[in-house]
Request: fold
Amino acid sequence: MNAANKMNSMLSSTALAGKSIVVTGGGTGLGRSMTQMFLQCGANVLITSRKEDVLKKTCEELSGFGGKIAYAVCDVRKIDEVEAAITKAENEFGNINGWVNNAAGNFISPTERLSHKAFDTIVDIVLKGTYNCTLAAGKNWIEQKSPGIFLNIVTTYSWTGSGYVVPSAIAKAGVLALTRSLAVEWAKYGIRSNAIAPGPFPTEGAWSRLFPADLAAKLDPLQRIPLRRFGEHEELANLAAYLMSDFSAYVNGEVVTIDGGEWLQGGGEFNNLEAIPSEMWDSIERMVRGKK
Ligand code: HXC
Ligand code: NAP
Reply:
């Protein structure tokens, strides 16, 4: 998306004023879009990932959108780098109020083709990366007696499972369990934990690894979505801003699905009747009524 474009925000330019938020994987894709929306709503945002050039460019492109933006190079698999990112955010903004666990790795593959290293790589980024950040930021909030908000980006296959992305599915299921567990355990510290489960939202990172052109031509991903369109980044970013704001103060332990109805279409026993042409329904009805 074009960095020069302001997003339409459902919240005001001061809805997140005074808040500082860390977004892991905030240099690209959905992390970048959430970052822009948080800035537009007045928050300060620290973005992190492994690639300094990407982070730097995003900071340049998103400065002037509202709150302050800064970055820290941080591989979420490495706890010392996560702790350094926390220190950087505190030095830049004074404190941290919210943390978005968005960084992820994924690719499609038949499971039997995967090495142990391939499994480790995805599970380490998604699950270990999320609990590394959660434990470090959460202990910090508890020690400082500060409230805080976690927002974890999962997927709809966190609860259904999915073939061909099995390392991601098991890791995202773990992240969802972490979200719900800490929503209860850490509520006493004023720490909320919620999740967003997106359906397909076009990003370079996801599309290049999950819907390569030849495959997309064969298996049109739009056919799986009742609304017959992909998500708009602005739609997800507005939801994220709401969940990071005080307007959602009583929402805790929730996972909000934003997928155009995709996962339910796969689940409903008779949803594939969508394929029946309308002219066939007269004869089908006659057959069904004839069974009285
Ligand atoms: C089989 C593969 C493979 C593939 C990598 N591997 N790609 N195996 N098929 N296509 C194996 C490698 O051979 C190696 O194992 C191991 O995985 C680690 O690979 P590396 O390239 O060394 O890892 P690394 O450099 O750390 O890169 C991690 C990555 C990469 C996940 C492989 O794609 C990445 O950096 N991704 C980050 C961004 C991303 O994935 N975004 C998409 C998120 S989308 P061996 O044994 O050979 O050493 C998402 C959406 C879900 O999550 C829902 C959509 C609807
Ligand atoms: P993306 O642009 O590839 O985002 C992934 C980000 O994670 C990148 O910025 C990447 O940056 C960072 N990252 C990867 N490994 C990391 C590591 N070890 N340490 C720190 N950062 C790391 O893809 P996206 O589509 O926006 O995905 C964002 C989130 O949405 C993910 O959690 C994904 O699972 C979820 N999601 C996306 C979709 C979709 O359709 N797009 C659907 C469902 C869920 P570096 O490479 O610089 O480290």
In short: The pocket of hexanoyl-coenzyme A (ligand 1) is lined by residues 104-107, 109, 113-115, 117-118, 121-122, 155, 168, 200, 205-206, 209-210 (CB under 6 Å). The beta strands are 20-24, 44-49, 69-73, 98-101, 148-153, 191-198, 255-258.
